[in-house]
Amino acid sequence: MDLGLKGKVALVTGAGSPVGFGKGIALTLAGAGCDIVVNDIDYEGIKKTAAEVEALGRKALAIKADVTQVAEVKEMVKTAIEKFGKIDILVNNAGRTTTPTPFVETPEENWEKVINLNIYGVFHCTKAVLPQMIARKSGKIINISSGAGISGMPRCVHYGASKAAITAFTKGLAKEVISSGINVNGVAPGIGDTNFLRTGNFPPGELERALATVPSRRATTPQDVGNMVAYLASNLASNIVGQVFLVDGGHG
């Protein structure tokens, strides 16, 4: 199915991991016809993602920037618009958590790291990109939340709280900007088959117990998330406003 995305320009944050939602989203959007601005603090990672985008026949621009830093975000958006002339789609994917720890044992610095990236990173990128969307009366913003932000996540309470904030942000902003022709929605993945899952320092048996609670009996892949993002970025979703879709194998 042609999603009508050919020639659109998408900025995808947090797309440097070799196996991550950001990379999956970037490649899926490129496969649908988008040119991609690939962002991460891992420059070598985003160069590889950009090369894979170009291998699909689309243009790519890799920009190293820390989305928790306002000045770096502004410069990233300026550079992207100078290169492509516009940003049609913003995918706020950059995020993190820390090693699962009981709430009372979680250091405050871990809260700060998670909140700065998962919340303020989304705020900064959205604020930088939104004015040119409003001026053109067109745009799609897709925020990557998490099932943990809906149902909660023991031992990662700070992460779940940060993602719940993004869900509320998505719903509120969507109602504010739809009159300007901008759709804001979100995707909430479940347990993700990502680099973090594959290399995370999980206690013995914890991951297996978690996956046993998923009706589909498998983790959510980057392609699963990319497919939903591509749909929400298309005009097929033009009347979907402020929704956050679980992609979690039925876990929610």
Describe the structure.
There is one protein chain. The longest helix is centred in the middle third of the chain and has 29 residues, at 108-136. The protein is an alpha/beta fold and 252 residues long. Helix content is 46%, strand content 15%. Helix 4 (108-136) links the parallel strand 4 and strand 5 (139-144). It is globular, with a radius of gyration of 17 Å. The protein has a seven-stranded parallel sheet, with helices on both faces. The chain has helices at residues 21-31, 43-55, 70-84, 108-136, 148-151, 157-177, 195-199, 206-211, 222-233, and strands spanning 9-12, 35-40, 60-64, 89-92, 139-144, 182-189, 244-247. Helix 3 packs parallel to helix 4 and helix 4 runs parallel beside helix 6 (157-177). The model has no long low-confidence stretch (mean pLDDT 93). The chain has one domain: 3-Layer(aba) Sandwich (Rossmann fold). It is built from nine helices and seven strands, in the order E-H-E-H-E-H-E-H-E-H-H-E-H-H-H-E.
| SSE-based structural type | alpha/beta
Give the DSSP E fraction (strand runs of 2 or more residues). Answer: 5-15%
How many helix segments? 9
Q: How much helix, percentage-wise, in residues?
A: 40-55%
User: Which residue ranges are poorly predicted, with pLDDT under 50 across at least 5 consecutive positions?
Assistant: none
The CATH topology assignment is: Rossmann fold
CATH 4th-level superfamily: NAD(P)-binding Rossmann-like Domain
